From TrEMBL:
A Pfam match: Glyco_transf_N
Signal peptide: 1-17
Extent of Basic and acidic residues compositional bias: 403-413
Keywords recorded for this protein, A-Z: Signal, Transferase
Region annotation (Disordered) ranges: 403-444
GO MF term (any one): UDP-glucosyltransferase activity
Keyword Transmembrane set for record: no
InterPro entries (UniProt xref): Glyco_transf_N (IPR058980), UDP_glucos_trans (IPR002213)
Designated name of the protein: Glycosyltransferase N-terminal domain-containing protein
Domain called Glycosyltransferase N-terminal: residue spans: 9-244
Length: 444
């Protein structure tokens, strides 16, 4: 079956940081000729309609489908359908219970289709899609959005019981069974759904990944190859590194900008301001759409930025990639008690980090050059002949074969159900009559 004959159904978690890479995957698959349907809730469909319409204008067969979000059944206000709309931590458990409840709506949608999709790609945090795919005999792949470094670390910590025996959030430990030496703490390597009341959600995520037909990773082998191979071996699943998916759209600024929420500021004014600055002179500060800093920390950050004379950006993988500077954060703010109003990163710490990165010294220059190398490798991975391009090709071939096999099995099952009933099923009792006659003869 050629890619042009395939229909992929994509089900992202209703959080913008998960929807955006799934939309990118939709474009990648459609770019290979497949038909792609992105299934989400009404609010999230409205948010992302522009980018889907842009894909269609580019000649890509991408469409949106909406299913209901039962948030009000779990105490959420009407219209709250995305994680960035949650105003306090008490809403999270109800939110994810509502996400899990979408199973029935998804199954009803799939059963109403004239033809079942060839593959369902679900976010790793949507394991509730697994029983739907099992009942309808649809191949299911799991898409992971975080780095494989993080995924593998969490897997190793759970496998070796570290989460069970370490109580202190800040107690340092070495990650066992890891390809490289990694020293961390519970706060920085907290796994998915590891909070009170979410134990079933966590078990479902683990089971959903373990039973998937394959795993998609939003990374590329030049940067995380050793972790990709180790994760595939640990899970025993077919695994493809198909990213970074965003690299496929780096040359189209409008398309990239339309993937997220509408900006709260004048984007054109910011672009104009950036154009007036020398190359490589501006630091971009971003904490994502879910992080909310406490007032004292925001003030301290602002003081540090003002003192440095530049904006500031937080690091991702300081130790492994060596492209960022450690700023001093010891525990994510989500794990601080509500009454904690202290400051984790001082203004002096901000100035120190910015200076190390931007002062033009040997270390800062080396980090910049290494970042440029990774950017070039990321682009190359997504181009024809690159590792991610090849992995995507292999995945499409795998899905084509698996879908054909499952379709044959499903058709065979339906044919068996439609076969004429046997004499026994029709109530033919001739056999029973012979046995009864024999019994009467013996009695007589």
């Amino acid at each position: 079956m050629a890619a042009a004959d395939l229909h992929f159904l994509l089900v992202p978690l209703v959080a913008q940081g998960h929807i955006i890479p799934m939309v990118d995957v939709a474009r990648l698959l459609a770019g290979r000729g497949a038909r792609v349907t992105l299934v989400t809730t009404p609010v999230n469909a409205a948010r992302n309609r522009a980018v889907v319409e842009g894909a269609r204008r580019d000649g890509l067969a991408v469409e949106l489908a909406e299913i209901a979000f039962p948030g009000q059944e779990f105490g959420l206000p009407e219209g709250v359908e995305n994680m960035d709309q949650l105003v306090d931590l008490t809403m999270y458990l109800g939110f994810f219970k509502a996400v899990w409840k979408m199973e029935a709506a998804l199954e009803a949608y799939l059963r109403a289709l004239p033809r079942r999709p060839d593959c369902l790609v679900a976010d790793a945090c949507n394991p509730w899609t697994a029983p739907v795919c099992d009942r309808l005999a649809i191949p299911r792949l799991v898409l992971h959005c975080p780095s494989v470094y993080f995924l593998l670390a969490v897997h190793c910590l759970a496998k070796h019981g570290v989460y069970d025996r370490v109580a202190d959030q800040l107690e340092p430990f070495e990650v066992p069974g890891f390809p490289v030496r990694a020293v961390a703490n519970m706060a920085t390597f907290r796994g998915f759904f590891q909070w009170p009341g979410a134990e079933k959600l966590e078990r479902d995520v683990v089971e959903g990944e373990a039973t998937a037909d394959g795993l998609l990773l939003n990374t590329f082998r030049d940067v995380e190859g050793v972790f990709v191979d180790a994760y595939a071996a640990a899970l025993g699943r077919r695994t493809w590194a198909i990213g970074p998916t965003c690299a496929a759209r780096l040359d189209d600024a409008d398309a990239s900008a339309s993937r997220g929420n509408r900006a709260d500021v004048d984007a054109a004014r910011i672009v104009s301001w950036l154009d007036a600055r020398p190359p490589a002179s501006v630091l971009y500060v971003s904490f994502g759409s879910l992080a909310h800093l406490r007032a004292k920390q925001v003030i301290e950050l602002a003081r540090g930025l003002e003192a440095s004379g530049r904006p500031f950006v937080e690091q991702l993988l300081v130790d492994v990639l060596r492209v960022g500077v450690r700023s001093g954060v010891t525990v994510p703010s989500a794990f601080l008690p509500a009454e904690a109003e202290g400051v984790q990163v001082t203004s002096a710490g901000v100035v120190k980090a910015v200076t190390e990165l931007m002062d033009g010294g040997e270390e800062g220059t080396a980090r910049r050059e290494r970042a440029k190398e990774f950017a070039a490798k990321a682009r190359a991975a997504m181009e024809e002949g690159g590792s991610s391009h090849a992995d995507l090709t292999d995945m499409i071939g795998y899905v084509s074969e698996l879908s054909a096999k499952k379709r044959q099995e499903r058709d065979a099952g339906e044919t068996a159900q439609q076969a004429p009933p046997s004499p026994a099923e029709l109530g033919d009792t001739s056999g029973h009559k012979i046995e009864a006659d024999a019994a009467l003869s013996i009695q007589s």
